[in-house]
Amino acid sequence: MSTQDFTIPNHYVLAALRGPKENGFDVALLLKQAGISPDVLTEPMAPVTAAQYSMLIKHIWLTMEDEYMGFSHEPSILGTFSMMCHAVIHCPTLEKAITRAFRFYGLFTNLPRLELVVLGEEAQIVLHDEQLNDPDHFLVESLLVIWHRYSSWLIGRRIHLLKTQLRYPAPEHQSEYRRLFHCDIEFDAKQTGFIFPVKFLQEKVVQTETTLRQFLIHSPADLLARPDEGNSLVAQIRKIIGSDLSQELPNFEDIADALHMSVQTLRRRLKDEGLTYQELKDQMRRDTAVYYLERGDLSIQEVAEKLGFSESSTFHRAFKKWTGITPGAYREGDENLER
C-alpha cells in the first residue's frame, strides 16, 4: 500500500466542501468527480482515501476557479500557486525563496498576508488570517501545511517545526494536529503561524525547473493529502509493523524492545502523540482495508485475510466500527459512483 492510500478524516472533507456549498456549487457532483461516496455527508466515519481527497481539492479549484476555495474575500485565480513557484525556483536559499514568494502574494491586496519573521535562533511564518471567511479554519490549516511542506520540498529535506500557533480554541479533533505538524500546538495564540530553527533559511534551494514541472502535476493538492509523519514515533512504529498485516502483529512489548525503550515510556510518548497502540493498529488496518476494497480485485473474505482476520464476519464488525458502514456497503457505494 502506498502513502497515497492513507485515509483522510471526514471533517476535513466536510470543511473543504463548505466553500463550494455556500457559493452555490453542486457538492454531490464534486464528490462524484472525486470518486467519493455521498455517505461521507452523513456518516461521520465514512473513509476517504488520500488520493480521493487530493482529487476533490483539484475539482473544487477547477469548478470554483479559485485556489482558496471561496474562503477568502478575493479568489486566488487558477495558476497563482504555479506562477509563484516559477517566480522563486531560481532563488539561491530558502530565505530568498520565501521572501520573494510572500512579495508575490502581496500583490493581491485582498488575499491573506504571509510574513517571514526572524527572531534570534528561530524563524516564523505568520499568516494574517483576520479577514478570512473560514469558520472551520480549513484554509488557514491548509496554507500552513502547504507552506511547511513546500518549503521542505524546495530544500530537499523536511523542516523540523518547533511550534504551531493557532488563534482559535482547540477543536474536538485536536489530536490530529500532531499528525499535520509533528510539533507542539498552541491554541488561542495571539497569531497564526509556525516556528522553526532559523538555520533552515540558509539551506540552498535544490529544486530545478525540471523537478518543478513534475511537482506541479499533483501539487499543492498532493501536499495536503499525503501523510507527513516525519520521524515521529508513530512513523517508526508503522515501519516496525510493516505492510503485511495478514500475520500476527507485534505486541506492545515487542514494539518497545525494538525502539529500545520501556513499556511505560512508549505508552507515555504515544499518549503525547494522541493515540494508543490499539488505535494505531486499527488505523493501519482501516487504511489497508479501504485500499483493497477500492482496488476491487479481491473478495471481502480475501480482504479480511489480508488484514489478519480468519472470519469475514469479524472483519465486517471491525470495519463498521472503524467507518460506520460495512465493507459491502462501502464497495457498493464505489460501484454506484462508477455507473
From TrEMBL:
Entry's Gene Ontology cellular component terms: cytosol
Ranges where the HTH araC/xylS-type domain occurs: 235-333
Record's keyword terms, sorted: DNA-binding, Transcription, Transcription regulation
Pfam families noted in UniProt: Arabinose_bd, HTH_18
GO MF annotation list: DNA-binding transcription factor activity; transcription cis-regulatory region binding
UniProt-listed PROSITE patterns: HTH_ARAC_FAMILY_2 (PS01124)
Domain of life: Bacteria
SMART domains xref list: HTH_ARAC
Protein name (record): Transcriptional Regulator, AraC family protein
